[in-house]
Amino acid sequence: MQPFPRGQSVAIVGAGIAGLAAAFFLRARGITVTVLEGSPRAGGKLVLAQVAGLTVDAGAEALLARRAEGIDLIGAVGLSGQLVAPGTTTASIWTRGALRPLPRRQVMGVPADLDELASTGILSAAGLARAADDLQLPATARSGDVSVASQVGARFGQELVDRLVDPLLGGVYAGRSQDLSFEATLPGLAAVSGQHRSLAAAAAALLPAQPGTQPGRLPVTPPGQRPAPVFTTLAGGLGSLPPALAAASGAAVRTGTMVRELARTPRGWRLTTGSARAPQQLEADAVILALPARPAARLLAGLPAAAGAAAALAEIDYASMAVVTLAYPAGAFPQVPHGSGYLVPAVDGRAVKAVTFSTVKWPHLQAADGGAVHLIRCSVGRAGEEAILQRADSELVRLAAGDLAAAIGLRGQPVDALVTRWGGGLPQYNVGHLDRVARIRAGVAAQPGLAVCGAAYDGIGIPACIATARLAADQILAYLETGAARPKASQAR
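Above: the chain sequence. Below: its structure as tokens.
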């Protein structure tokens, strides 16, 4: 593969995982890549912290192992030897006064096996009876996008939505099922639902077959073998990936550099940084916006031809949340939890929406200090619950400790704690999200040498963000390869 002509340059705005991955995909092509990050550090929601002497992730703590993008990128930067599997993935729902096992045969809370659902005790007798109607009801027509709550509720009833679907969606998006898009958040289920009268049957079609049945759409683990892990992480924490990625990319990463304006020029693009009194400018042949939706919208608002994309980006809402990491001595537990954690339905009125028993889920953490302490990670905050996040760190620690005492009988106080706030951290894929993304990409495509990537588009997980980065990098490489990187003045907007 021939390198591109020397002197071509790409500016990437945003140094989260998507922006750094895009820089990596542009490496070694004779292109000068500059990554501009407004905050004091690179890495976005991948960040390491110290709690009770242990290094932990204070942002994202796992990635899907069954999507290749994350694993492949980790291997490409030389960190494959750091990959570790969870000790357990068994999880629970804390509802109706008890910890109840999360059904294994479900797709984001949509049950594939109603008998298994009944055995968990998550639903009341009345809720189970209503859920069983899914097997008898005629197919639910769907014209265009609808909310998860309306589609799933029409099949199984509101109690299942409240106690099973909502906590699972809340754990991923910090969102609410009455707002979130069925098409965008459950794309696999939405795709096959039209082939089945029952939504439970559609969910079953996406899952591995049970013994004695025909295989489903996913591979079945051979007898005697442990199933491949759904999630993985790095022994040094996922927060160790961004610096490795930045170094491997060869890009110049400039933190504390907020881009205030983006403008077309006869030769490409001009990015304005710095204060209004002392502005600085960077010229580039192409630009990738690896930003959350709202700041991306503000930059595109100055481009008349991208007004539609800017408006669609501005429609994407974000939810705020906080991660409360607590360290307890081993003696604080009546018994050490066996599962990886639990979720909490919003209808139960608790401050904490999800709990991870970190030193149980990730045995390498427990081995690091010989099991002297146990780490527990609590997530606080859902869409519409911003008020709780206004409380002081000490109050959030107290609320989290109180919920843990009620759920698992934890005694005493934590020996260390850390509160990490993610204001506006999670994009909400609300009804109409796929249409919004289509409008954004159409508007951006009309701007030669411009691309977007990040969590606002096709998925909020690390592999999904990396996939958008690959797409953006490929679009920019194709643009530069055509030799159109330096348009005539008449082409400039």
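Residues 212-225, 485-493 have pLDDT under 50 and may be disordered.
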